[in-house]
User: Fold this.
Amino acid sequence: MVGTATTAGIVELMDISGASRPEADRDPEKMAKLAASFHTDAKFEVIRYPFDVTVVGEALGCQIDTGTRARTPSIISHPFESKPEDIEIPIDLMKRGRVPVVIEASRLLRNELGMKVPIIAGIEGPADLASYLCGISSFLMWTIQKPEIAKAVIDKCIDACIICANEYLNSGANAVVMADSLSSPEMMGPDAFKELVKPALVRYNESVKGNTILHICGEVDSIVPDILQCGFNAISVEENVKDLNNIIYLAHKNNTAVIGNISTANTLYRKPPEDVRKEAFKCLDAKIDILAPGCGLAPETPLRNLLAMSEARDEFKHLKDKV
Assistant:
């Protein structure tokens, strides 16, 4: 299959669908139309929405910069930086911020637009969410100097993730992808991931009633064995991993699918379709399960390069069938 589990919302598809961000980040009909265009116009067989990873953080009290057509929303305040013990998950979380927009977009994609392809709703993971609420510097410092505070914050964040994931699934999503860039070994370190984040991810998968995917940016090879013990149905990896073949081997032994990992910043954004084809063939040779961008797509990524992904898959399959 060809698709994406990471953020996507390119300008060309905004023009084609008539649904542009930032309006498509806050209007469920426009969100659904833009997401659907990845299937109808980019020929993706797996589509992902919303188009940023700040929805849960905003619902929990973070202020955001709403962004533009070519710039995704970003967190601009950390309401619990000085008092992490004050973090509470509101009982009306499902009614806050843009969470209702994602819920309604799920319903629209599944019921009214009748999408027959898998639709994946996205949420931020517990480490990213903790950094939104408390500030990245403070949170990373706690993981080293005050791990009991970091763990308490992560536990509250995973509670919010569980609530949102189950509601998105109930509303029509086939799976929920959790993006947790701060869990990367390049940011937090393998030991902190194992001791602080991994137990929360295990509890998440024990509590979520449906298919789950995890995406962590960067060179995740060192934490893949721990990731695979968390219970996700699939993992999404980017192009910076050291050994894609080994990751796929380990994942398949664990009955876990692998998604990825065509370079977004270089190949898909900057290079011609022929280079997309070459990189896609490498992924397919490694037996990737879903051929996809390795990370979030730059808004000005050319549509021709997304179309080149499915064309490469079809060519690869044709060549294999001839052998």
